[in-house]
Design brief:
This protein starts with a strand and ends in a 7-residue tail after the last strand. It has no helices and 16 strands. Helices cover 0% and strands 66% of the residues. The strands form two sheets. Strands 3, 4, 5, 6, 7, 8, 9, 10, 11, 12, 13, 14, 15 and 16 form a 14-stranded antiparallel beta sheet that branches. A two-stranded antiparallel ribbon has the order 1-2. It is an all-beta fold and 155 residues long. β1 and β2 form a beta hairpin.
Length: 155
């Protein structure tokens, strides 16, 4: 609904067939509260919360069968805490962590069969030490990186 010319309350969005495809909370014209997106037939696709138009709290993305695809946390729009991703078979795809929007700690990535494929370490948002890639043939390779931010291109 509208209050003093601004969106206020939970707004539902519909597709051409009249199915609910999203619910978003508003307060004083800003996203605030629940935010959900749906696959067909109201199967949850995404759930999170906003506080004064900023992503805040736990965010969860789902596969169409309802199983969890990814979980992440935000603190006023900034990634924080542990983030995990899953394959559709339920196996862990990625295990990462943020502090104040910057990558920290050990980051691990797996293949669909739970075999470790990549591992690296971040300190205060910068890659530190060796980053290892494990290949399907059983070999591994490492890349020594010191003080490189994850968005920087490697030459």
């Amino acid at each position: 609904c509208w209050l003093d010319g601004e969106l206020h309350g939970v707004i539902e969005k519909y597709d051409k067939r009249g199915n609910v495809i999203a619910k978003v909370g508003y307060q004083n014209g800003k996203r605030h509260g629940i935010s959900e997106r749906y696959y067909r037939h109201r199967v949850i696709k995404f759930r999170g919360h906003y506080l004064n138009n900023e992503e805040n709290g736990e965010y969860t993305w789902y596969f169409e069968d309802g199983s969890i695809q990814q979980k992440a946390c935000f603190d006023m729009g900034v990634p924080s805490e542990k983030c995990v991703g899953y394959y559709s078979n339920g196996n862990l795809e990625s295990d990462t962590e943020y502090a104040q929007g910057r990558p920290i700690g050990e980051w691990r990535f797996f293949d669909r069969n739970s075999v470790l494929r990549h591992i690296g370490h971040y300190i205060e948002g910068k890659r530190e030490g060796s980053f290892f890639w494990y290949h399907p043939n059983g070999t591994s390779s490492d890349f020594k990186l010191v003080g490189v931010r994850p968005t920087e291109k490697l030459v």
